[in-house]
Amino acid sequence: MQHPVIKEGLEKSMSYQMYYDLINRLAETEGTTGPEQTEALIGYTKLNQRRMKRWDKTIKTSEQVQALVSDFSHKMTWLVITESWCGDAAHVVPVINKLAELNENINLRIVLRDENSQLMDMYLTNGGRAIPKLLMIDDETGEVVNTFGPRPSEATNMVNDYKVKHGKLTPEFKEELQFWYNKNKGQNIIEDITQKLCQFEPGMCV
Predict the structure, then answer these.
(1) What is the pTM assigned to this prediction?
(2) What is the pLDDT along the chain (206 residues), one digit of tens a residue?
(3) Nearest alpha carbon to residue 79 among 118, 124, 112, 117
(4) DSSP β-bridge partners for residue 134
(5) Domains and CATH numbers, the chain
(6) Which residues pair with 107 in a beta bridge?
(7) Residue 136 backbone phi and psi in degrees, to 5
(8) Does residue 90 contact residue 47 with C-beta atoms inside 8 Å?
(9) Is the dihedral of CA 46, 98, 192, 183 positive or negative?
């Protein structure tokens, strides 16, 4: 039986196209998602609108990945928790969408974190409300069978190593992380998510 908080999140969710259109509107009208309408968050939303537009045009999936994902036979809903101002989300969510588009069994839905705090608090990262967070829901059982996020594995290792050495993330490191996303072109995200699909349906990856 599906958890009522997850059910509520799905009922309030939007498609990727609706989310993309929302960010475009916010960028044009000097706004952002969430209760805080600060100049900084509005600026991040504008920046992320440009990033998402670029990634939607340039993300490439290999023939191997296309074949693997298209062979996935379970019906799933992928529910992503995010906000328009989140820098990692601007790189990650378009890649998730590209993968979901490869298989009609995968239904991608998006919810905003600050409008779904109960849902977010069920899937914290090291005690924090880190986004984006992808919940992989088995449509047959309604259960969350795996999660991904807020960052791909290589970026997560970079962040953890930097925190160990320096205690916190600096603006310089955040810029370095953006360079990494641009150089990697979404491939680590694709690797991580396809690996999780293989965990759920091992036969597809033999």
Answers:
(1) 0.96
(2) 789 999 999 999 999 999 999 999 999 999 999 999 999 999 999 999 999 999 999 999 999 999 999 999 999 999 999 999 999 999 999 999 999 999 999 999 999 999 999 999 999 999 999 999 999 999 999 999 999 999 999 999 999 999 999 999 999 999 999 999 999 999 999 999 999 999 988 877 86
(3) 112
(4) 80, 148
(5) 4-151+192-205 (3.40.30.10)
(6) 77
(7) -95, 110
(8) yes
(9) negative
